[in-house]
Structures are given as C-alpha cells and as structure tokens.
Amino acid sequence: MPVIQTDELTKFYGDVRGIEGVSFAVEEGEVFGFLGPNGAGKTTTIRTLLGFQSPTAGSATVLGAEVTDRAALRESRGNVGYLPSEPAFDERATGRRLLEYHGALRGDERSGELLDVFDPPLDRAVEEYSRGNRQMLAIVIAFMHDPDLVIMDEPTSGLDPLKQAKLLDFIRAERESGTSFLFSSHVLGEVRKVCDRVGIIRDGRLVEQADVATLLDRNGKRVELRFADDLAADAFAFEGVHDLDIAPSGEATTVMFTYTGQYEPLLEHILAHDPLDVNIGEAPLEDVFMRFYDTDATLDAGEESENGGASDA
Ligand SMILES: Nc1ncnc2c1ncn2[C@@H]1O[C@H](COP(=O)(O)OP(=O)(O)OP(=O)(O)O)[C@@H](O)[C@H]1O
Can you give the residue ranges of the ABC transporter domain (predicted)? Predict the structure, then answer.
C-alpha cells in the first residue's frame, strides 16, 4: 500500500487555485521528490496531506488514513515526521524544552543519536538561534519519534554545505532502513542525490511523474568536443544531435550538443575529425526540469502561467 496516495486532490483558497486534480502515490521505502517553481503548489499539497487545511475536492490518504478523517489522521501522524520549510517554534523556549515537549507528544526514540549529527545549542532560547540551528532543531524533532514517513519541505534551506551533505546522507541511510519520504525541493543536485522518483508540479497541476533515471535517459548526453581544425557549421548535424553549437575558441574549434542517439555513430563521427578533447557526460537534470518549468506544452491550452515559468532552481 502506498504511504501517500492522492486522487484528484484539489485546494482553492477562495478563488485562488492552490492545487487542482493532483494524483500521485509515494510507495513504501522510496524518496519521492516534489518539484516545482515558486507558487506551484508544493506547500499547499503538503499542508493538505498533514490535515492543516481541508481539500476543496478530491481525496488523499497518509499511511492509510484519509486526510479528512481527523481521528484517523491524528493516529497516523504519530508515525509521520514533518520538516516545514520555515519551522515555527515557541521562541522563548530552549531547544531542550522543545525536544522534551515533542518527545512527550509523539515519543522520543532517537534524539540522542540525532543530536550527534545535528547539534543545535540546546540550552539557548530558540529566538537566539541562527537559521541553520533552527533547521537542525526541526530535523531532530521530525525524526526523534522514529517515523515511518517523513514529509520535508525544502529541508536543506539554511544549512551550511557540510550539514546539507549530512542531512542527505542521513536521508539515504533512513531510506535503506525502510523510511519513506516526500521531499519538496528546488535544489536539483540534492534531488538527484536522494530521490528515486519525482513529481513535477506547475501552476497547481502535476505535469510529470517519473523516476530520476528515466528523466535523465530521456534527456540524453551532453557532448563537448574540441578540434584543432575549423569545422563546417553542419559538421555534426546528424540524427540524435540537438542544440548544436560550433564556435571558434582560441586556436581550436569547440563543438557542443545534446545527443540522444547510439554511441557508435557518434564516436565514429568524432574520431573521423581527429579531436583534441572529448567530453561526454550526463545532461544536467536542470535541463529536464527547465523544460517543464518553461514550456506550456504539458499544460491545458489557454491556461495562464502566473509564475511566467520563473524558477530559482
Ligand atoms: N493561505 C493562502 N491563501 C491564499 N492563497 C494561497 C495561500 N497559500 C498558498 N496560496 C496560493 O496557492 C498557490 C500555491 O502556493 P504554494 O505555497 O503551495 O506553492 P509552493 O510550490 O509551495 O511555492 P514555493 O516554492 O514558493 O514555496 C500560489 O498561487 C499561492 O499564492
């Protein structure tokens, strides 16, 4: 049974659409990345799943509990960890007091172990905390009751690079031991590192659901070559080559393109021109997402994009 299942989930704030007709499932033991530009509907989805607000239409279950069934959802919430994008605390309480409070509420099976990795200054009032320390406290609170499912809204924001890496390592290890995640993020590098599948949301609608490997495969390879000689503009215009760019650079000629064909004809073609440098790598995941962020191809005709395709990814 999926740990999260939504069916045509819809939330309007008055006339403003938060999300509309969103259907996806997060399977047990996977990290499901939830991506989309600002205002796309990620937080709306998460808040509806946690029962902070009621759906306008459609339905959703979290660990089997209908989000509209308050009693069932309260029970399932005991097995859910939540890391909000901007954790709100009782500012005058110390970190230690807040851990005690949450421990009494949901249980504390692992705060000691978590505090070895994420170490906010527990004896200071939260109002004195830096952004990163607030985030670390929120991480400990999200995991201390050893939940089966963790819902994270941009979890690495505010953390320094070392702590970010620790959190991603921690998520991977938790996944190995069977924990499931819904992971909302703008940071494609981290999505790449930890997510098995992604759902892409735009203007309140889910426009794609796929595993990360498939998305990268579909995107092809990024090829960068350097040649000593001048090349004709169409020297690499053959099947499977996209976005071809041939330009002089210093004494050499640089050729760059995205390639979706077989390796053999590509390599033959490169060797026939006697290359100085050959660089073939995975096309960046950014390219895949930008395509979803920027075009209207996958949306219903006639819909206005309130975000203009803008993204801070
Ligand atoms: N409380 C609210 N009242 C009215 N409109 C809201 C409310 N919360 C969200 N919205 C609107 O719903 C839409 C989706 O917003 P949401 O915050 O879910 O997006 P998001 O994907 O989480 O964005 P971000 O990446 O910027 O956090 C936006 O148009 C937003 O203005």
Answer: 4-228
- Ligand 1 centroid to Cα of residue 268, in Å, is 51
Instruction: With H, G, I as helix, E, B as strand and everything else as coil, classify residue 279.
Output: strand
Tokens standing for residue 16: 């403003």
212-219 and 285-294 helices cross at what angle (nearest 10)?
A: 90
Closest to 152 in 3D by CA, of 162, 139, 140? 139
**Could you tell me the distance, in angstroms and rounded to a whole number, from the CA of residue 160 to the centre of ligand 1?**
26
Token reading at 44: 């709306």
Domain limits, the chain? 4-216, 221-282
State which fold the 221-282 domain adopts. Alpha-Beta Plaits (3.30.70)
Any idea which of 41-55, 56-70, 124-138, 268-282 has the lowest mean pLDDT? 268-282
Determine the pLDDT at residue 293: 67
Homologous superfamily in CATH for domain 4-216: P-loop containing nucleotide triphosphate hydrolases (3.40.50.300)
Instruction: Please check the confidence at residue 126 and state whether its pLDDT lies above 90.
Output: yes
> Ligand 1, from 11, 20, 44: best to mutate by most atoms within 8 Å of Cβ?
44
Euclidean distance between CA atoms 196 and 212, whole angstroms: 6
Nearest residue by C-alpha to atom 30 in ligand 1:
39
Ligand 1 atom 10 nearest Cα: 18
Instruction: Report how far residue 300's alpha carbon sits from residue 113's, in angstroms, rounded to the nearest whole number.
Output: 48
pLDDT in tens, 160-215: 999 999 999 999 999 999 999 999 987 777 888 899 999 999 899 998 898 888 87
**Whole-number Å distance between alpha carbons of 25 and 195:** 14
Average pLDDT, the chain: 88
Give the amino acid at 106.
R
Q: Best substitution site from 10, 11, 16 to test ligand 1's pocket, by max atoms within 8 Å of Cβ?
A: 16
